[in-house]
Amino acid sequence: MIDPAYVPHHRRIEQVLRERITAMRPGDRLPSDAELVAEFGVSRMTARSAMQRLAEEGLVAREPGRGSFVAAPPAHRRADRLMTFSREMARRGRTPSSRLVARAIRPSTPSEAEALDLPVGEPIVEIRRIRFADSEPIALESVILVGSCARAVMTADLERGSLHEAITRSGQTLRRGTGTVTADAATAEDARLLDIRRGDPLLVERRVIADVDGRKIESTESRYPADRYALDVSFDVEDALPPPEEPT
Q1: What predicted TM-score, i.e. pTM, was given to this entire model?
Q2: pLDDT of 216-237, one tens digit each?
Q3: Distance of CA 243 to CAs 89, 236, 237, 239, 247, Å?
Q4: How far apart are CA 155 and CA 163, in angstroms?
């Protein structure tokens, strides 16, 4: 009969390393597989399994030929608030930057027209950028804007400047948005642009933002490597008990 208090060896190693990591800094070196074998008296496979699980959670960065290191914490954002990427990173003490991949004015596709409540073929502005924090790619961002944004956005410095500031200069005041967050696997293009492997997990955020009059101005898809970005969520807990019945 298995002792209910028994903890598998790889779990025990994980627990010990988690405690150590809380007192360490990003970039600090962690024990090698061989050092874990000697310390815990386990097989190399068990040691490797424990470290790999921590890597999959984003706590450990494994670099072939160099070893394992404490990973930098992912960037976080509150799910109920949208701040420009540059301000968001700056608040966290990281240096934001962008690389422009595409910028064009073209006819809208049926799905783009539906997202922004436009006639199919209506001119829209397309912007695609890679967003960086401390030179690390954090997101592949694809933005579709209504044509009235074109004059300001097509001439704006979108590698060092803010897209939302450019939209504001076009006379639009962004006010409210809706969005969804899903998971996806990295495509070949994601892998190439975000410096990850094809098939790596992604956090995908899609949102639509409207102006003060409720007109849809922006439709955006942001694709984040799952170990580099996170959304913080606050919520109310619904009462588990049914409401009392009204007297008849």
Answers
A1: 0.66
A2: 999 999 999 998 887 766 666 7
A3: 44, 17, 15, 9, 12
A4: 11
